[in-house]
């Protein structure tokens, strides 16, 4: 299956056919990680557990900003 890179404003886009998304269980709004492997491009669904962990870390860093700054001195 071939797709074409198309210009859209300041970005370039690749459209993934609906049947491919359905086969892979992906939907609009899902996050993908892009990897370059041996000169090839891989799109990998973002692991929800990692994304959830990163959100928790960000919340903790915001909540404890002052104590973390003191510890960093």
UniProtKB/TrEMBL annotation:
<feature type="domain" description="SpoVT-AbrB">
    <location>
        <begin position="6"/>
        <end position="51"/>
    </location>
</feature>
<protein>
    <submittedName>
        <fullName>AbrB/MazE/SpoVT family DNA-binding domain-containing protein</fullName>
    </submittedName>
</protein>
<dbReference type="InterPro" id="IPR007159">
    <property type="entry name" value="SpoVT-AbrB_dom"/>
</dbReference>
<keyword id="KW-0238">DNA-binding</keyword>
<dbReference type="GO" id="GO:0003677">
    <property type="term" value="F:DNA binding"/>
</dbReference>
<dbReference type="Pfam" id="PF04014">
    <property type="entry name" value="MazE_antitoxin"/>
</dbReference>
<dbReference type="InterPro" id="IPR037914">
    <property type="entry name" value="SpoVT-AbrB_sf"/>
</dbReference>
């Amino acid at each position: 299956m071939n797709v074409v890179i198309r210009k859209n404003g300041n970005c370039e886009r690749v459209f993934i056919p609906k049947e491919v998304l359905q086969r892979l269980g992906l939907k609009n709004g899902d996050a993908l990680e892009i990897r370059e492997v041996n000169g090839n491009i891989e799109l990998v669904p973002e692991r929800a557990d990692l994304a959830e962990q990163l959100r928790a870390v960000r919340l903790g860093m915001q909540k404890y900003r002052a104590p973390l700054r003191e510890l960093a001195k």
